[in-house]
């Protein structure tokens, strides 16, 4: 019985972390219509930035505070340099350009940080583990991570649903010309959305870094699973990404222990099932 | 990834042209060079391993004055990206494109299998510098293919022997569900169960999944004496840290083949303290070859050598023996291969010789990670040979 409770906890924890990574992707994909393959690379850069920033600032949360604006500025710069030329073009060109960005970012990572796996220290006040059962501890940092992810999810949903900025973003998504006609510069709006997506990916990378460590290719895995989340949740839907992440987290945790033979296909089977029942995802619009 | 390889090739070509252009060499000098092909991961997760192998090979040749058996050595490098799907294409680049005289590589077992298959058909002298996939020195062995690293099950077997010696009785195994992991676990089981040990459960994860929390909960509930785990690189680092985070290390010692800790000793920090592994090398090994090798390597690259560097180093030692027996003429393959098969020399890892299937017979050492360093604890298995099932050489 306690194993089942533990797996629920593990699944929720993994799912919440996934949400953080996938939410930025769903925003960029849903609102800008951009297939951003470099999303995982932003996550990777976040993890490595966490390494450098914690070394400078001494604490992962200070690194987060410094990293988010940095990632936002970086994302805005990438949008201005490259992405803005893609809005009117087809997906193939988006895929090509953002794939090229992956190569460039990976090369930067290799040059700056090297190829050996590197560890990012947890803050000392969160580095202990509490005992869940007689034989098993649970790192306090992971619990803190869950709380942070929940808060961020609530903030994002609130901003999108209930604020003027959120309404503008939703309006720009469905009818950019009309938003322009009303006097808003949709180019600025799009830049903000893309930069927010990059910042979210980097934030996920920074927060996860103390448990995930930083190593080459760390972003690739995140990219693929984030796409699965986006497809399950419905493109552009924050709520969908939230639910999709939790579903995948739980499926993964239970799959590995109770049906290990099928654990590798389980999340994809889940995705296929959702696509059959609701082709546009759980919260996707037709 | 299409373009990276091309860029490396182009850069290499550009470099070669700019070097060669000012002084066009006389033709006899051209004939005197011997081209050694390196198929290695220069990008991606395994890049540090490829770099270590590459560096040790270059260092060896440099110390020999750039020549082996009177032939000037030039290297042709191709980044294999650890991508099995591109392995045939990349190997072709070296064999047909660069027309190498000697083929060496690589880290990833899937890539190495494709490379070995082509090498077997071609008959080119070939040195496997890391990949431990069993088939290369079993069913798919060949007179022209030599391995200077290890067999996956060989390292597992040695670890099993060390665990028996330590009094471990009941074990849970954890690994990725892919060839290297499964072969490693099979080797471990072979020696461990033969010595009376019991396997409680084999847990596998899809490769390269690193979400370990759920299986750690399962390990805790199974209460084994110890865990045998095969992971490498970033996955290994995360496993060690998650294992300690779940407080499992306090009651259930973590064991594995040396790949579990190699390259992540420092990064693991206190979480890695007490992890015991067996491997055919440890940096602090006390023999004259290792002392010199470690000092020279550190002087050249500002970094201590690792097991991968030793494997690259010994590949060049073995090549030199073969070339000298053939008077530097790689066309004299029978003489070359006979000398290489019988080769026996002191390596930084201890005595080195090859078994009938061309896999090293070597010592395995028990190490314990402590304070960011693998400490030498003793010999886990002396001059252990790998199984040669299915190989019809010798």
The fold-level CATH name of the largest domain in chain B is: Rossmann fold
Classify the helix fraction of chain B into a percent range. Answer: 40-55%
Count of DSSP E strands of chain B? 15
Based on the structure, what is the oligomeric state of the protein chains? heterodimer
CATH class of the largest domain in chain B: Alpha Beta
Count of domain modules of chain B: 2
Structural class of chain A: mainly alpha
SSE sequence of chain B, one letter per element: HHEHEEHEHEEHEHEHEHEHEHHHEEEE
Shape annotation of chain B: globular
Uncertain stretches of 5 or more adjacent residues of chain A: none
Strand content of chain B: 15-25%
The CATH architecture of the largest domain in chain B: 3-Layer(aba) Sandwich
> How many distinct domains of chain A?
1
Overall pLDDT of chain B: 91
Distance between the termini of chain B: 41 Å
Cross-sheet strand order for the largest sheet of chain A: 1-2
Q: Can you write the helix and strand succession of chain A as a string?
A: HHHHEEHHHHHHH
Classify the beta-strand content of chain A into a percent band: under 5%
The helicity of chain A comes to over 70%
Shape of chain A: globular
CATH homology superfamily name of the largest domain in chain B: Response regulator
């Amino acid at each position: 019985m306690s194993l089942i409770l533990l797996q629920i906890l593990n699944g929720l924890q993994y799912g919440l972390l996934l949400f953080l990574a996938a939410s930025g992707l769903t925003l960029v994909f849903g609102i800008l219509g951009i297939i951003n393959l470099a999303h995982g690379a932003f996550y990777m850069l976040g993890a490595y930035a966490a390494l450098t920033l914690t070394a400078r600032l001494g604490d992962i949360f200070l690194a987060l505070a410094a990293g988010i604006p940095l990632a936002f500025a970086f994302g805005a710069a990438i949008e201005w340099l490259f992405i803005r030329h893609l809005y009117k073009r087809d997906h193939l060109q988006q895929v090509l350009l953002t794939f090229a960005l992956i190569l460039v970012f990976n090369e930067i990572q290799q040059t700056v940080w090297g190829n050996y796996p590197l560890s990012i220290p947890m803050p000392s006040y969160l580095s202990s583990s509490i005992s869940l059962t007689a034989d098993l501890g649970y790192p306090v940092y992971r619990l803190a991570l869950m709380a942070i992810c929940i808060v961020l999810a609530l903030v994002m949903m609130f901003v999108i649903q209930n604020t003027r900025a959120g309404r503008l973003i939703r309006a720009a998504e469905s009818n950019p010309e009309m938003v322009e006609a009303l006097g808003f510069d949709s180019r600025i709006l799009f830049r903000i959305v893309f930069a927010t997506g990059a910042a979210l990916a980097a934030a996920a990378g920074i927060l996860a870094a103390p448990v995930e460590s930083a190593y080459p290719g760390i972003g690739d895995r995140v990219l693929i699973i984030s796409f699965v989340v986006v497809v399950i949740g419905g493109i552009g839907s924050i709520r969908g990404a939230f639910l999709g992440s939790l579903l995948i987290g739980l499926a993964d945790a239970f799959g590995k222990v109770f049906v290990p033979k099928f654990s590798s296909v389980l999340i994809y089977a889940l995705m296929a099932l959702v696509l059959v029942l609701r082709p546009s995802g759980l919260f996707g619009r037709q | 990834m299409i373009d990276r390889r091309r860029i490396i090739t182009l850069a290499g070509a550009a470099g070669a042209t700019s070097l060669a252009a000012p002084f066009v060499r006389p033709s006899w000098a051209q004939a005197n060079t011997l081209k050694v092909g390196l198929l290695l991961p220069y990008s991606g997760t395994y890049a540090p391993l490829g770099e270590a192998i590459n560096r040790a090979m270059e260092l060896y040749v440099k110390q020999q004055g750039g020549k082996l058996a009177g032939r000037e050595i030039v290297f042709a490098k191709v980044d294999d990206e650890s991508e099995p799907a591109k392995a045939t294409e990349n190997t072709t680049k070296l064999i047909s494109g660069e027309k190498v005289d000697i083929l060496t590589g690589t880290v990833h077992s899937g890539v190495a299998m494709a490379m070995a298959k082509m090498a077997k058909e071609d008959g080119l002298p070939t040195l496997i510098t890391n990949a431990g996939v069993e088939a290369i020195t079993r069913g798919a062995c060949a007179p022209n293919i030599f391995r200077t690293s290890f067999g996956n099950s060989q390292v597992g077997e040695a670890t099993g022997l060390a665990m028996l010696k330590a009094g471990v009785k009941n074990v849970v195994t954890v690994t990725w569900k892919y060839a290297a992991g499964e072969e490693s676990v099979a080797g471990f089981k072979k020696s461990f169960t033969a010595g009376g040990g019991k396997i409680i459960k084999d847990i596998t994860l899809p490769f390269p999944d690193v979400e370990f929390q759920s299986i750690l909960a399962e390990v805790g509930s199974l209460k084994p004496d110890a865990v045998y785990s095969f992971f490498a690189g970033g996955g290994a680092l995360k496993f060690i840290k998650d294992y300690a985070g779940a407080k499992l290390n306090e009651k259930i010692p973590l064991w594995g083949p040396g790949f579990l800790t190699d390259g992540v000793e420092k990064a693991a920090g206190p979480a890695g303290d007490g992890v015991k592994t067996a491997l055919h090398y440890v940096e602090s090994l006390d023999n004259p070859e290792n002392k010199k090798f470690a000092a020279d390597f550190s002087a050249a690259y500002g970094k201590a050598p690792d097991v991968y560097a030793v494997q690259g180093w010994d590949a060049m030692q073995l090549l030199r023996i073969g070339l000298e027996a053939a008077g530097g003429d790689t066309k004299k393959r029978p003489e070359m291969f006979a000398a290489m098969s019988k080769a026996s020399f002191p390596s930084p890892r201890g005595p080195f010789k090859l078994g009938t299937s061309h896999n090293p017979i070597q010592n395995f050492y028990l190490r314990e990670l402590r304070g960011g360093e693998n400490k030498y604890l003793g010999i886990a298995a002396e001059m252990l040979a790998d199984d040669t099932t299915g190989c019809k050489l010798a």
